[in-house]
Task: inverse folding
DNA sequence: GACTGATATGTCATTCGTGACATATCATTA
DNA sequence: TAATGATATGTCACGAATGACATATCAGTC
């Protein structure tokens, strides 16, 4: 289940979609990474919009600054659970979370 | 972070939204449970629509029948990661996953 | 330059999710 | 009733995710 070929790559902020073939990632793998990246970006955006530091957020969710940094860089060691729960802690609704996963909003 | 007051309750299939106050769940907690329930329902629906047994799905994702059953009942021990990765294994796209999280489609 | 605050990176012990297994429950069919 | 197939529930050893800490990097400001 874990397929760790990507380990260090996603953390570096690669455009996963465009390098998928190059890295030899399966559809599921890249879809999963895309989702994590979307949530990671959303988390950072939410945090910054509330003028919180990583340390502030860490305190609020009972974690540490280093883990928040890893969340926002979509580190392989952070789970979707932690990302989602952090977003919820910032007041993001499940619907908002869903929106983060569909950057392509249905125009007209 | 774990707040296990709900342990056995969500698994039993309660209407979380309606019993939130009664159970004393925070907004975040109930939102998190709602999300898990939505994914759990989606997983079962997807699996059944492809005429797969829990054992079939388990084999496909490298897990076991018992864990699939727990996924579909939103057992507290199953992570969002596992739910999401299982959905992706069934061909669900990240956008589809997002749709599962917003049962209330924006009408008009 | 040095100092400060924020963020990034690496490591580790503890905790939690996991697959696997046993077994139970529930339908269906004979 | 028994037998078969599917699903549910309980337990456990193992591996992965976690918070915590140290330390590094980076931007401002003096």
Result:
């Amino acid at each position: 289940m874990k397929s760790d070929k990507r380990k260090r790559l996603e953390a570096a902020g690669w455009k996963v979609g465009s390098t998928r073939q190059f890295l030899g990632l399966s559809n599921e793998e890249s879809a999963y990474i895309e989702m994590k990246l979307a949530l990671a970006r959303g988390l950072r955006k939410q945090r910054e919009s509330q003028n919180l530091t990583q340390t502030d957020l860490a305190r609020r969710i009972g974690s540490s600054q280093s883990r928040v940094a890893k969340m926002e860089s979509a580190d392989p060691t952070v789970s979707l659970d932690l990302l989602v729960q952090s977003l919820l802690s910032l007041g993001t609704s499940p619907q908002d979370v869903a929106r983060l996963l569909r950057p392509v909003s249905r125009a007209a």
Notes: Chain A touches chain B through 28 residues (CB under 8 Å).
